[in-house]
Amino acid sequence: MLYSEPVILVFDIEATDLFGDAIAIGGVLMNKSDGKVLSKFGGRCPMTSEPTVFVKEYVLPAIQDLKSYDHQEDLFRAFWEWYYKMTHDEGDMLDNVDVFVDFGYPLEARFLYEIQKLVGKYWNGPYPLHEVSTLLLAIGVTPHVSRLAWPEDQFPWSDQNFTIHNPVDDSIMSGHTVIKALRALASREFGMF
């Protein structure tokens, strides 16, 4: 798939605990210039381990409306198919697609390791993989800033209803955070070292 302007792909994983098994994946492809969502992926699968109290209380209700897959492997393959279609053309990674995750460790790093073992496409993964949190740090904003509140001045939420811990919605909020941070970087002048 070719794009007429630069785009970003942001994905998010929800799991049974911080180092647990993935139970939901969300991703969005959006224009880097205006944050318009061009494509979405969202899915969930049955749990293979006991979730924490936090996950039971906050994550499970947030993912209940996502498309359900019978097995984790099916969810992983479906995401990979979507990811690959969004980021590659005739087998080559597109130059105008930047891939982001919010915090790359531990969930997304483990997920990428597991999915690469499953699909065996070691050269087709998100490389380089960028972190929203590192981008925020680079502009002097705490990496823990609310992804819902911080970009709101540039992306008003009044017409959208986001659910925190829904990985599709989290990806949209993180994508808007990326765009605001990139705009802040672009407005600065950097000297030589």
Q: Concise description?
A:
The protein has about 190 residues and is an alpha/beta fold.
Please, could you describe this protein's structure?
It is built from 5 helices and 8 strands. Helix 4 (132-138) runs parallel beside helix 5. It is an alpha/beta fold and 193 residues long. The model has no long low-confidence stretch (mean pLDDT 90). 36% of the residues lie in helices and 21% in strands. The N and C termini lie far apart (39 Å). It has a single domain (7-186), classed as Ribonuclease H-like superfamily/Ribonuclease H (Nucleotidyltransferase, domain 5), CATH 3.30.420.10.
Total discrete domains: 1
What is the count of DSSP helices, taking H or I runs of 4+ residues? 5
Query: For this structure, what is the CATH class?
Result: Alpha Beta
Give the helix proportion (percent range): 25-40%
Key words describing this protein structure:
single chain; 193 residues; alpha/beta; Nucleotidyltransferase, domain 5; two-stranded antiparallel ribbon; 36% helix; 21% strand; globular
